[in-house]
UniProtKB/TrEMBL annotation:
Keyword ATP-binding in record: yes
Pfam families in the record: Asn_synthase (PF00733)
Enzyme Commission numbers on file: 6.3.5.4
Gene3D superfamilies linked: HUPs
Region (Disordered): 1-35
Name of the protein in question: Asparagine synthase [glutamine-hydrolyzing]
Domain of life: Archaea
GO biological process: asparagine biosynthetic process
Enzyme kind, highest EC tier: ligase
Keywords noted in UniProt: ATP-binding, Ligase, Nucleotide-binding
Annotated CDD domains: Asn_synthase_B_C
A GO cellular component annotation in the UniProt record: cytosol
Amino acid sequence: MGSGSPDGRPQVQGADPATVRRAVETGDPLPGTRGFAGRLDGRLLRDVLGRYPLFVDGDDLTSWAFEPVQLVDPVAVPAGHVQTEDGFRRRWSLPSPSPSGGSRAIDALQSALEASLEAVETDGLAIAFSGGIDSALVAARLDAPLYVAGFPGSHDVAAARDAAGFLDADLRVVELDHGALEAHVPDVVAATTRTNAMDVEIALPLFLVASAAAADGFDRLAVGQGADELFSGYAKVANASEDPRLSAETVRGARDEVLQTLPDQLERDALAIRAGGVEPVAPLLDDRVVEAALSLPDSLLISSRGDRKFALRLASREWLPDSVAFREKKALQYGSLVARELDRLARQAGFKRRMDDHVTQYVESLRG
């Protein structure tokens, strides 16, 4: 927290100050980083996708931190904004390039993925792995142990074991139970300052995987975050014209709408992983991958037969068999069974489903 390091150097996470300074000067939203946030030249700033969390203390812009727990009234700095004399102004917005289809688009995506993954240092690295296309692609290109969290019999543990076999990779299973959930809900709530059920259900397995990796001596955790948003992994995007949750009528428009939710999600995930004792690494959110994804047409986001993340699946054939590349995956909170079991714990504790948002009420009861 505060106004800079003791020797006066800028405090910026995620990228070197010179690159960030050029991005501020030119307005380039994708300057070749995996995101950034912090204080530079006396101004707070956060990249266009909010890949690094940053907070101020209420209206006091002189009091800031990378973690909300360090502030009395933490308020997230909006993604793509730079501090001004009276608040924040938007400096960066995602580009909207004309769509580029065919094999050229897949080749460009493959090149971006290859460059991003090759740039990841594997010393001290573990990989959060669920057996789906996103984490499998990361695991196929990085030589590091894989970690999956889930209850016995969960979809994610089974899928991870199957995919790890194809990759001939070392898989470590973090087997969950009710005691682990009850014990660590307060840790997740403290780190993220969130108590709503869905956020906690997603953050818990990330925190527990991160904690297991940290206990084994690793200090970084590679994740597949961002792929669902960038490449249209959600059913509501595939059915954009009919889904009342979205205002867009096209797949690309719906994808761009969903991308606006990323800063809030990435903030939660990064804080949960850091609370577990490691630093997140998100190669699928590299600027080069983002740029390639933004140029994809509707037909490469959703195939004619309804395959979501179609371009990513086609591009991954370079490194993965189709049985992994085209595997459907459940959302983390469901694939790990954390959502189901947290609901069970809530009901056992007297928070019945007829109550308004009963799991959130249960989480709040555990805060202490």
